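Quick illustration for those who missed Monday's session on complexes.
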Amino acid sequence: MPDCVYLASQSPRRRQLLDQIGVRHELLLAEPGEDAEALEAVRGREAPARYVQRVTALKLDAAVARQRARGLPPAPVLCADTTVALGATILGKPEDAEDAGRMLAALSGHTHRVLTAVAVQHGDQRLRALSVSEVCFDALTPAQIAAYVASGEPLGKAGAYAVQGRAQAFIRTMRGSYTGIMGLPLFETAQLLRQAGLPC
Ligand SMILES: Cc1cn([C@H]2C[C@H](O)[C@@H](COP(=O)(O)OP(=O)(O)OP(=O)(O)O)O2)c(=O)[nH]c1=O
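Prediction with thymidine-5'-triphosphate bound:
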């Protein structure tokens, strides 16, 4: 029975969340030359749920190939991807401060969805889950947006905000999974890891 999982993610939130449920993990990160961002390109008018699950599958394919290429032990491999959807529009991680400001202006005063897909490879078996949450943002003033962007928090976060950070002050209501919004839905993740034979 495996007692450890490979986490193929550079997101500090995902590490922290796995720690929170006591899952032992080792990082399985891309080589410096590997272009991880290229996996996240959106294809035309792809629906957000389809997009986030496709990207997660690509991340997992790359991680499993890395595990084999490095001759690592056959422990389960875990990947996830988070995206924000405003209607049919996909908002990934902002490219820069200006892009972050545009995303926050678009989210202001509206309800959006946060989708996180999780996938685990265990031998030949691939286990998958999708968490979908709804977040309603207050109407933000340009000054609030500018101050939040200047804090640096939006960078590296889908939709340019962090539920676990200062953005809590903008959120009127939330429905779904707090940890899913943060990047790794712990209920669904624990279910998948149990199916893969891990104690959690
Ligand atoms: C909406 C939201 C996202 N996020 C983060 C979680 C993810 O790190 C990031 C979404 O980008 P992802 O592409 O899902 O993940 P990543 O590039 O950070 O890491 P990797 O692909 O290596 O696994 O946004 C928050 O931290 N809080 C939030 O409230």
